[in-house]
């Protein structure tokens, strides 16, 4: 089978293949993970600080070979599965299928072997960076004491990766001649101590005799009215969500001041998701497509309004994660008009057809609607005018600072 891992798994895969995670040659299984958590060592006693894991949702068995792909479908490696747990965790060695293709600063993505060859046996002080370096004097002094070259390792993972590499190149201009810059796609770990230990292991793999961890960047988010925002309406057919979403769009267009994109569920179905059925798999794919477009709008500071039914909680959570991953904000509005009221309205006769069995897998009748428990705003339009509902959403945007 073929599978595209998650971004952090792809980053770990690259470091496994390059040798930056030596002595690891593949993803860890249950016994190794337990030993790492309990003792900071692999099951065989080899010191190792942090989990390096891969999850596959599809059924695979020990002995199977899985081709791991990048997001564009390029084969990166084969994984020989040695074990699979009930939660989808798989373990086994990986073998590269060719050099991965890189985006910005590809010329700086060197392997540990290449860096060691360039060092030629000279001592190196590795400086791992997740943001700009505030003070270079201590780095220069330490390198002088060690009689070592300075090796800047910008940890270029995620959206902010290119900015970290640019910070390293700026720092290089102020450091002694011979300073090297090597981009390393190390995904951050949740626990700072484990993240630091893993950075030290990677620095050692690149030939460092000493490791200097750069300070963690202080992120000060911009004001809400300058940040990207996705306003995501969810609710049953006939609940009023599309009408409220259109009313909000009109109000925001009158106010001006924000780049606005409106993604109505029916319109998206005719264009972006034309040809999809109403099976659960296709409904999920439709919502993911809407989420992807909305996140791209928000990535660049725009405001996207979405109004699909989005009946499944897990898929709504995926969209929220997509948006937040690009540094934007996500506002979930549950238009919680009861089913009885939605049926009473039923201007298109859809509920009647669903009750008669003419429309299969119809949300609220023959297919479930999972009510959100994480909505920032809940509106029932049974006894509320559309104008009043729009005002409530607009007031939420104003109170949150997204609209001035």
Automatic annotation (TrEMBL):
Keyword RNA-binding: no
Record keywords, A-Z: ATP-binding, Kinase, Nucleotide-binding, Nucleotidyltransferase, Phosphoprotein, Transferase
HAMAP family: Adenylyl_sulf_kinase
Start and end residues of each APS kinase domain: 227-380
Family: Belongs to the APS kinase family.
Species in which this protein is naturally found: Nonomuraea wenchangensis
DNA damage as UniProt keyword: no
Domain ATP-sulfurylase PUA-like: 8-83
Protein's job: Catalyzes the synthesis of activated sulfate.
UniProt catalytic activity: adenosine 5'-phosphosulfate + ATP = 3'-phosphoadenylyl sulfate + ADP + H(+)
GO CC terms in record: cytoplasm
Broad enzyme group: transferase
NCBIfam families: apsK, PRK03846.1
InterPro entries cross-referenced by the UniProt entry: APS (IPR002891), APS_kinase_dom (IPR059117), ATP-Sase_PUA-like_dom (IPR025980), P-loop_NTPase (IPR027417), PUA-like_sf (IPR015947), Sulf_AdTrans/APS_kinase (IPR050512)
Known pathway: Sulfur metabolism; hydrogen sulfide biosynthesis; sulfite from sulfate: step 2/3
Pfam families cross-referenced by the UniProt entry: APS_kinase, PUA_2
GO biological process: hydrogen sulfide biosynthetic process; sulfate assimilation via adenylyl sulfate reduction; sulfate assimilation, phosphoadenylyl sulfate reduction by phosphoadenylyl-sulfate reductase (thioredoxin)
Entry EC number(s): 2.7.1.25
Protein name from the UniProt record: Adenylyl-sulfate kinase
Residues where ATP binds: 235-242
Source taxon at top rank: Bacteria
Gene Ontology MF annotations: adenylylsulfate kinase activity; ATP binding; sulfate adenylyltransferase (ATP) activity
């Amino acid at each position: 089978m073929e599978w595209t891992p998650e971004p952090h798994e792809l980053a770990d895969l690259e470091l496994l293949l390059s040798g930056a995670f030596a002595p690891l040659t593949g993803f860890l299984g249950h016994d190794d993970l337990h030993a790492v958590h309990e003792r900071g060592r692999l099951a065989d006693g080899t010191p190792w600080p942090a989990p390096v894991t891969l999850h596959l949702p599809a059924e695979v068995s020990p002995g199977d070979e899985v081709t791991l792909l990048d997001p564009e479908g390029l084969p990166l490696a084969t994984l020989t599965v040695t074990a699979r747990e009930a939660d989808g965790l798989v373990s086994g060695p990986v073998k590269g299928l060719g050099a991965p293709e890189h985006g910005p600063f590809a010329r700086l993505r060197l392997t540990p072997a290449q860096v060691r060859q360039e060092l030629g046996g000279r001592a190196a002080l590795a400086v791992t960076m997740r943001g700009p370096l505030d003070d270079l004097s201590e780095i220069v002094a330490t390198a002088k004491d060690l009689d070592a070259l300075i090796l800047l390792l910008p940890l270029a993972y995620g959206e902010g990766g290119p900015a970290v590499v640019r910070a390293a190149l700026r720092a290089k201009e102020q450091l002694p001649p011979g300073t090297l810059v090597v981009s390393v796609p190390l995904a951050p770990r949740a626990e700072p101590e484990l993240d630091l230990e893993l950075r030290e292991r990677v620095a050692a793999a690149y030939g460092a005799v000493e490791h200097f961890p750069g300070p963690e960047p202080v992120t000060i988010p911009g004001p809400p009215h300058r940040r990207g925002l996705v306003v995501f309406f969810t609710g049953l057919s006939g609940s009023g969500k599309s009408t409220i979403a259109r009313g909000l769009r009109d109000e925001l267009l009158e106010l001006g001041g924000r780049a606005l994109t409106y993604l109505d569920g029916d319109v998206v179905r005719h264009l972006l998701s034309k040809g999809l059925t109403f099976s659960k798999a296709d409904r999920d794919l439709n919502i993911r497509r809407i989420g992807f477009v909305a996140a791209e709008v928000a990535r660049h500071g725009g405001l996207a309004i979405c109004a699909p039914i989005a009946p499944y909680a897990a898929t709504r959570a995926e969209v929220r994660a997509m948006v937040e991953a690009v540094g934007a904000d996500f506002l979930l509005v549950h238009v919680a008009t009861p089913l009885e009221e939605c049926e009473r309205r039923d201007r298109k006769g859809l509920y009647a057809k669903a009750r008669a069995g003419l429309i299969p897998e119809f949300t609220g009748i023959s297919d479930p609607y999972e009510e959100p428990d994480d909505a920032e705003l809940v509106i029932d339009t049974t006894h509320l005018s559309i104008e009043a509902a729009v005002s409530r959403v607009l007031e939420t945007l104003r109170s949150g600072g997204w609209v001035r």
